[in-house]
Amino acid sequence: xxxxxxxxxxxxxxxxxxxxxxxxxxxxxxxxxxxxxxxxxxxxxxxxxxxxxxxxxxxxxxxxxxxxxxxxxxxxxxxxxxxxxxxxxxxxxxxxxxxxxxxxxxxxxxxxxxxxxxxxxxxxxxxxxxxxxxxxxxxxxxxxxxxxxxxxxxxxxxxxxxxxxxxxxxxxxxxxxxxxxxxxxxxxxxxxxxxxxxxxxxxxxxxxxxxxxxxxxxxxxxxxxxxxxxxxxxxxxxxxxxxxxxxxxxxxxxxxxxxxxxxxxxxxxxxxxxxxxxxxxxxxxxxxxxxxxxxxxxxxxxxxxxxxxxxxxxxxxxxxxxxxxxxxxxxxxxxxxxxxxxxxxxxxxxxxxxxxxxxxxxxxxxxxxxxxxxxxxxxxxxxxxxxxxxxxxxxxxxxxxxxxxxxxxxxxxxxxxxxxxxxxxxxxxxxxxxx
Length: 435
What we know:
The protein is of the alpha/beta class. 31% of the residues lie in helices and 23% in strands.
């Protein structure tokens, strides 16, 4: 089969010859002067000849490289040469031994056989004697069938990361109260393995009372150590003392102590509310509260019932970028909880570069959390966001508790907008602190 370099050189010589004849003919008929066509033909022909020569050199070099490769596969000095490369001085007996047919049946691999005597195999080289392997390196995992590398063995050492603990929020309180009668409310933040310890502490707090109700909720994501957690209870017609409590999340559990009483709640009816938990200012869970108000509130059997509900995976935070402390807290919360939704909101609102896609995120939000301040009241972007959220709430697309305004300045930095005048703006002074 003709090689490529031969064809290339032949075509190049042919083109060069035709161009030379063409040039000579033109010169004899037209006199002096070079014509473009013949000159281009000469250049192309010469280029093809050079290309063919280069291909030939490459072909020869590949042949020599193959021979060199075979030489590198020869046994190292001191080891017996391969049969085809033995020196010519070998005896006829040696050649006869090489030509001996291979024995039938399975081949024994643990031993080498020389004649009738079994010779133990040579010891395998140590790891530090193998090329490319450092001394003390762990052995490579065995190959799986089919020549594919085996999957790595799972790390069972003590250094393997353990799954984070679930964080729960609970509340213990009387299920029935009399009007204007102060009663205890104990809220807890705990890791899941501390549930028994929290129940024991709650029983110690309430003593022998049998009218205590217990509800709990799971946090959206593991709460990091030392994160600032704020608890804010709220029931229509009730007063709470203190209005809120903030604690750092340390140890296995923390307790938030409140007292509450019914001041304007109707008699012989249940009043429903919630205790809201915020981590670094971002709402992560609501524990429901339900209290019956009666002049004859009595005792009942203590049967705490832990409630369950889906936490808030989508929290839209509306704030002014000029409130740097709030921006830092929201961004920190998005890193703490690894919330893709919250990261999208903070990215789109970065530097007050308002984006129309923010309205789509409000549509899919579970909670619209408004961080109210003087800067937020002056921000055109914040105004568009809370007006859009208020419209969704007014049309019934979102629930009555969809918009959750909070503030950290006292007195109220700016009057609430008309769309939100009926809502309560929770005061959390700790949000203004920078850590």
